[in-house]
Fold these 4 entries.
Entry 1:
Amino acid sequence: MRRRDFIAGLGGAAAMPLVAHAQQRALPLVGIVDMAPGNPLVRAFRAPALAAFRRGLNETGYVEDRNVVIEYHNLGLQFDQLPGLVADLVRRRMAVAFAIGPTVVRGVKAVTETVPIVFYMGEDPVSEGLVASLNRPGGNLTGTTDFVNQLFGKQLQLLAEAAPKAKLFAFLVNPDNPNAEPDAKDVQAAATILGLELRVITARNETELELAFATWRNSGLARCFSASMISAPRQTP
């Protein structure tokens, strides 16, 4: 092999990783944005849903790292980081955003009106003001909901039926969760209809959770039949 040919071949070999990298970055980017707390229970809950999402892509001909790039970003409950993350994904020409929960949907929608947003949530997207209707969402939004967050009132009713002598119930929420206030209002409305007394107890972390239960006991709730329902952090498919 001549020296000139060897140098040319070496230069081509050195450039190959750059070419491969450029080709990979050219693949359509699917950004999955989540804001679930990073505890083992939530991770275990997320895993089947994310696996099903990837299977759905495979069934339609999209194979990860072959003809599509999938990035899963979980911000935990760090809501302040959402705008920056979404802006970065849009800057990198994200082809579609899979947004889990209303907070994420609003964050993505605030940054782009052109990137398609596929959402999953437990709330009613119409009452959340995200879509015009379920059959015609409009704009760049589409997705699914299981309405699980609309069932807290029904859960309270079932608890009351299970313990008909109980008149005092507790509803445990994380006040940093944007869903806490509307969930508490829904349960309070149900409690009023059922003629029950509802106490809303707040806790942001394990330490506050222990204090919340201490307050619960010291306030006399422990002397009554009390059912604690937890308004879980948003976005759990």
Note: Residues 1-22, 222-237 have pLDDT under 50 and may be disordered.
Entry 2:
Amino acid sequence: MIKVIVIDKHQIVCDGIKTILDQTEEISVIDCVSKIDIIIPKLNTLNSYILLLNIYAINDNVIDIITKICINHPKIKVLINAMFDNDHFLMKTIKAGARGYLSKDDGASELKEAIYTLHNGYEYHGKSIANILLLNFLKQDKRKQLGLEHLTDREKEVLKLFGESNTNKEIAEELFISVRTVETHKANIMKKINLKTTVDLVKFAIRNNIIKL
């Protein structure tokens, strides 16, 4: 069972998310609080949970709390659901240690996929923020990457499909493999060519003309 704690200042939003997630047998919303700092005292009693944090405005205090949670409680995975698009804030959450980021344009299916992906030990970033992340990385990151010759043909297929904004499930269906296998391929790609985040996969694909913006 994947246990989720929802953090949102609106009870009606909490109730709606709980209804959506509780329809999935593998996911259970075990608590809902109005502020992220309310959950801090409880973290020592928790083991492996996903914190779904809904954010309505840029708040550097939240970044500080996320950083402390990720450092002191590495088994707790933070998933951001932001009601705005801001590349600077997005990068701050990633650097703070958040494992996933969704925006106001992402729906229930992406929320569920994000939770499954984080639970399996991987990062997840919604489709709607892909361009923001890509432009940021392409402008700032000048580090040399190893070449495509280090990847297998199947890994190149996965890289191309991921770069085209396909979800793990869509890639699995396209290649007739399991979602878990897709995640394993992604992890292997990142290790082989020295990438740090899943967004780097897309950046690498663009630089090597596997996909085009």
Note: The two ends are 38 Å apart (CA to CA).
Entry 3:
Amino acid sequence: MNKIRAGGLTVDQLEAELNRVLSTYIKEPQVAVSVTEFRSQPVSVLGAVRNPGVQQVQGRKTLLELLSMAGGIDAEAGHNLRITRRKEFGPIPLKTAEADPSGDYFVADVDLGSLLEARNPQENIEVKRRDVITVPRGELVYVMGTVRRPGGFVLRQRETLSALQALALAEGLDRAASPQNAMIRGLEAAITIGAGVAVYRR
């Protein structure tokens, strides 16, 4: 019997080739091929993780396991992550999943805080080969003026922040501060006037 090279063939192509070769020995052969494990399953983990790059995965892995393989979440990570999957590997089993404009990929967002705290275990889905997991950096909130530690602060695993929480990150008001003159702005162009405190978000 002839040897058949499986390397470089898809499952369907290998089944067709086996059926073709066996048809010289068996009448109407029906071959079914299933892959028990992919030796090389590259998954990209990018963005605000400690070791971004391509992870070579063996066996089944979940989102949390992939984040762990990438060294964990960076301190500047935002409040969600995004999964991009090639259409040929099937849909992403999440409510937020949708096809991208090209129709070649599925895209889904996962709340990072919910995932890490296991508030919804169904979000910890199995990762497929060639998936791309992106962890965007968190938005910045700037606290300027007469506070003890002025500057920009990352929202991290949350989407919103109250003015009091922002002031807490800035270690509170300085003695010379005038709380009645505090301003909250929504654009980077916000400025501090006098001895007031300006809080704004980029």
Note: Helices lie at 11-22, 63-69, 112-116, 163-169.
Entry 4:
Amino acid sequence: MEEVLGDEGLQNVLEACRQPCNEHKQSWGLFPISPYMTSLEDVYGVQAGRGLALRVGRACFPYGLREYGESLGLMQTSFRLLPFPRKLRTLSEALNSLLHECAGQQLTMEEAGGKVLWHLEGCPICQHRHTSEPACQLTVGLAEEALYWLSGGKMFEIEESACIARGDPRCTLQIDPAPLF
């Protein structure tokens, strides 16, 4: 977040989050991210806050790759040489393993209607939030950057089609497997 917002911006978000985070710390589990997303929207407005969350997600991916890429088998030459659809399946399986181990969450991949769907059960981004529109822009940003890296520099259309914060049973990212460019 600091990389995207700068020192002062991050301090403003942390200050806005201080009270809600302390009040509900126990109920948010291992990754209490949702209150920070709410504070980001409170400080910058909903539209700008969600745009910043998207950028934060993109900025987070390289850190996660450095931390977990080797142990998940994503840095091996044999993985890098796989065709894109197989790399996408392998990445989905690796992310599911990581999320399950670290936070007890589950990510499943499904192909339907010419799209790839990533379903996330127990989303830490929108947990305990109530919105009228999907609110997991940080997750979308992570997915955008992951696919950019996975494909060797291609951009893909990714849309959150279901969101727990909106009342859906799980969060779902819909990925068009054909790159935009």
Note: The first helix runs from residue 2 to 24.
